[in-house]
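MODEL INPUT / OUTPUT PAIR
PAIR INDEX: 1
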Amino acid sequence: MQGFLTLQEGQSYQGEASSDWQKPVEGEVVFFTGMTGYQEVLTDPSYKGQIVVFTYPLIGNYGINEDDFESEEPQVNGVVMLQCAATVSHYQATISLKDYLNKWNVPFLTDVDTREITKSIRSEGTCQGALAKESVLPSDKVLTGQIYQAYNPNTTCYGEGKKHIVVIDFGYKSSIVEQLVEKEAKVTVIPFTNLSDVYKLNPDGIVLSNGPGDPKDATKYLTELKEILEAYPSLGICFGHQIIALAFGADTKKLSFGHRGANHPVKDVQSGRIFITSQNHNYVVDEESLNDTVLEVSFSNVNDGSVEGLLHPSKPILSAQFHPEANPGPEDALWLIDEFLTDIPSKKGEKVYA
């Protein structure tokens, strides 16, 4: 059964459509360059509303397991692959990728030259696309407000560690919480709309999570967020990194085609050390806008020089544009979570600021 991915500029790519595909689906078309990690990508709320193109030729060979979900269900609008493995070959697999996508009615297209699509996106920039049984142009609708689409109103608690961390949820990945719990923290996840709860919980530290879309969608919360950042040791991850920049008066801008993959080199500005990171984002902090703030650049992207991390010169506030929890991807940056937890006083109530 044939299907098509049609981009906003009119380029159309034909492939084999999944059998449960009933209606045309639109979304922002992005590409992911990792060889593995498709399960984490599909369930990462940062991909909310997007059509993901996997550049690696063979996807799905180790199936889907019960351990690597970043949320309870797929977050993507659609998937495009060259080849989706028909046979699952991993002892932890409980279902094939094809069956998983069909179970959740996520349309996917195979037998497509995904690298050709990637070249088009790199040339023309990220754009809207439509998946359909025939070549159909997508609407001109601009994708906005994704953090509200990924919104979870619930407050949840994990772990029983000595240090209490509040994760402000903009569309968090489960692996962030899992890493904190593994490092003996108690974690409470609260929605970004319930910021007053932070003071009631009186945590030892704050994590601003990843999330989908434009960080300026959270503009009305920036004043309150800055007060929280100045009151508690804080770590911002991806979207949370951008929120920290905005809260302190910097600006963000949209990249032409974003960073998505598990192979992005980042440089530690102070030491000069380079490490490989996992990334997923369209927006970055505008470095020039930092000149009028107290924030300093701590990491930079080796490929394009964009800002990959920030720190406050006198307060325990740090951030990373990449994903230090490393799912999917290398574990080169796990130390950043350790550094954040080290910044937190070991005794409850101990003063952080002079």
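PAIR INDEX: 2
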Amino acid sequence: MRKFLIATHGAFAKGIKSSLDMIIGETDNVFLIQAYLDDHISVEDELATVLTHITADDELVIFTDLLGGSVNNIMIREALKNNVHIVSGFNLPLLIEVIMGDAGTPVTEIIETAIIDGKEQMIYVNKLITQQND
């Protein structure tokens, strides 16, 4: 089974999960790490808790907010496992596309396509409007 982890600095993970739930409905295979909100819980401990829900037969796709950030760097330790994939710098369209991806399609293909599509969603709307008016 594919499982997903949204791991971000602060409450960003919870906010994007809220938007995700509004659009695609609630999912029970999406986990969250909201790093550094509680000084008494380390990111490593939060990750260890999530990993108890992942079996060798599962695929885990981890979404992090910032390439090179501390959260991403902690998650990279898991990238050496064959069943773990990390996507950094995600946006909501990318997240939706990966989570809703066909279970029969290799996750690597879904991720690659979603990254291209996610980049295309980033548009400077003022320029788009100006170009359409010309």
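PAIR 2 NOTE: The first helix runs from residue 12 to 24.
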